[in-house]
């Protein structure tokens, strides 16, 4: 099948059905034979999602009335994307995109005319798109407003960073190999990377590579994980012999890191509501040869799965808007709605309240999100502290990363090449 048509069908899943881009690609890429075609479809779909609002604005300028057929609309958007962002020869971008309408002959002339008009008038159209911030930076209007409200000094940078392709970062399994040795192995394979002084397990690659090319990946010498996410294990300060609870644990990056970081735990219990995602925790632990107790359960109702033994350490990596990882998942800009935030806030507060009784006196709880909204972060901790007299915040004394929030610490997307992340530490008196 025409690769542009496959890409359009993937985009329909996201734009019309609200499916995640990853899930839509997973369902469609296996039908493509050649790796270079897979890479093309992937790049096209990521690019259209990343620049959707800008491309859609330009498309509307080119049309008298909107295109109702979403597959044809996706083809039009991806045609403009190829012409404006990709190194595809313009005549191929137009002719191949037109060819992709083969099963809908009525659309052939429309796509052809649209793309040729874009070529003719691109300078003027690009100028028009540059006049409004949310169009120029390709974000939904509500999100721009929210970021400007929460982070007036950083909003513009966050919007720019959200449109960048993030680096590929690795977590070296320090229980098996030193970061220096692993870096040496990468260098021998001509894979350039650099270490991160405030995060001993982290290496950032100069260019992404397929995981199969990473030395010892199959045997668990390294995993792919953003540097910001790797800060959780250190913040949790796990000690030998402790019982640790990781709620909201799937797909298991932080659970695995905690076990690598402290191999002498008494037990790590990893809970997630989604049993399918929990299978990914299992796969990851198997690759890394690590053990944990996995439980499919709702963090809001621990009475249904908890055996009554207290934990000295708890990580709540809460379900959140994921607005800090837009650069990795640009489809979030299309999928997330302004009114998703309040229900998430309620869920996060419920999880905090329900899990708190499982923490032993003197124990430490780390609350984390990959969000940059204050509502999901410092305001959650504020509300929790106000209603829990036995909870006390431990200030994260840190100068190497993040911004001190009124509670906890916020990493702004893109700073020091990291995803947007939030951490707060609470102890039980
Ligand atoms: C941010 S992800 C966790 C990422 C994970 N900690 C890691 O490092 O790989 C949030 C997780 O919360 C889970 N989740 C959502 N609602 C939940 C609930 N009520 N109880 C338990 N887990 C929940 C989701 O299934 C999702 O896997």
Task: Please report which band the strand proportion falls in: under 5%, 5-15%, 15-25%, 25-35%, 35-45% or over 45%.
Answer: 5-15%
Reported for the largest beta sheet, the result is: 9 strands, mixed
Global morphology: globular
Mean pLDDT: 97
First and last CA, distance: 63 Å
Number of strands: 13
Order of helices and strands: HHHHHHHHHHEHEEEHEHEHEEHHEHEEEE
* Share in helix: 40-55%
Chemical compounds bound to the protein: S-adenosylmethionine
Rg of Cα set = 23 Å
Strand pairing plus helix content: what structural class? Answer: alpha/beta
The number of helical segments is 17
Low-confidence stretches: none
Please write out the topology.
Elements: H1 3-15, H2 21-28, H3 35-50, H4 52-62, H5 70-85, H6 90-99, H7 108-129, H8 133-136, H9 141-150, H10 155-162, E1 169-172, H11 179-188, E2 193-195, E3 202-205, E4 222-224, H12 227-236, E5 243-247, H13 253-261, E6 267-272, H14 275-288, E7 293-296, E8 311-317, H15 332-335, H16 341-355, E9 359-369, H17 378-387, E10 391-394, E11 403-404, E12 409-411, E13 421-428
Parallel strand pairs: 5-6, 5-8, 6-7, 8-9
Antiparallel strand pairs: 1-3, 1-4, 2-3, 9-13, 10-13, 11-12, 12-13
Helix pairs in contact: 1-2, 1-3, 1-5, 3-5, 4-5, 4-7, 5-6, 5-7, 6-7, 9-10, 12-13
Bound molecules: S-adenosylmethionine (SAM).
S-adenosylmethionine binds at residues 247-254, 271-274, 277, 298-300, 317, 319.
């Amino acid at each position: 099948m025409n690769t542009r048509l496959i890409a359009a069908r993937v985009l329909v899943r996201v734009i019309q059905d609200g499916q995640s881009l990853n899930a839509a690609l997973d369902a469609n890429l296996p039908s493509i034979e050649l790796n270079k075609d897979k890479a093309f479809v992937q790049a096209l779909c990521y690019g259209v999602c990343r620049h959707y609002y800008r491309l859609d604005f330009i498309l509307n300028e080119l049309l008298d009335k909107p295109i109702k057929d979403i597959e044809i609309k996706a083809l039009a958007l991806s045609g403009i994307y190829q012409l404006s962002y990709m190194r595809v020869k313009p005549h191929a971008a137009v002719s191949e995109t037109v060819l992709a309408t083969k099963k809908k002959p009525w659309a052939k002339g429309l796509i052809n005319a649209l793309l040729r008009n874009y070529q003719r008038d691109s300078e003027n159209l690009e100028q028009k798109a540059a006049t409004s911030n949310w169009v120029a930076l390709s974000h939904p209007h509500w999100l721009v407003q929210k970021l400007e409200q929460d982070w007036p000094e950083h909003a513009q940078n966050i919007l720019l960073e959200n449109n960048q392709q993030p680096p590929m970062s690795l977590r070296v399994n320090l229980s098996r190999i030193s970061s220096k040795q692993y870096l040496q192995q990468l260098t021998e394979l001509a894979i350039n990377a650099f270490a991160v002084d405030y995060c001993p397990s982290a290496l950032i690659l100069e260019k992404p590579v397929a995981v199969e090319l990473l030395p010892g990946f199959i045997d668990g010498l390294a995993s792919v994980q953003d540097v910001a996410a790797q800060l959780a294990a250190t913040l949790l300060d796990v000690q030998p012999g402790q019982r640790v609870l990781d709620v909201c644990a799937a797909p298991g990056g932080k659970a695995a890191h905690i076990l690598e970081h402290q191999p002498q735990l008494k037990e790590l219990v990893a809970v997630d509501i989604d049993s399918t995602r929990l299978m990914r925790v299992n796969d990851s632990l198997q690759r890394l040869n690590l053990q944990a107790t996995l439980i499919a359960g709702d963090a809001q109702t621990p009475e249904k799965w908890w055996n009554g033994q207290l934990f000295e350490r708890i990580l709540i990596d809460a379900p959140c808007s994921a607005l800090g990882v837009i650069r990795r998942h640009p489809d979030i800009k299309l999928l997330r709605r302004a009114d998703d935030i309040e229900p998430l806030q309620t869920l996060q507060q419920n999880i905090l309240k329900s899990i708190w009784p499982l923490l032993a006196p003197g124990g430490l709880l780390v609350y984390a999100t990959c969000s940059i909204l204050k509502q999901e972060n410092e305001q959650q901790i504020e509300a929790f502290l106000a209603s829990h007299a036995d909870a006390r915040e431990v200030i994260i004394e840190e100068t190497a990363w993040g911004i001190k929030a009124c509670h906890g610490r916020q990493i702004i997307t893109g700073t020091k090449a990291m995803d947007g992340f939030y951490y707060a530490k609470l102890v039980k008196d």
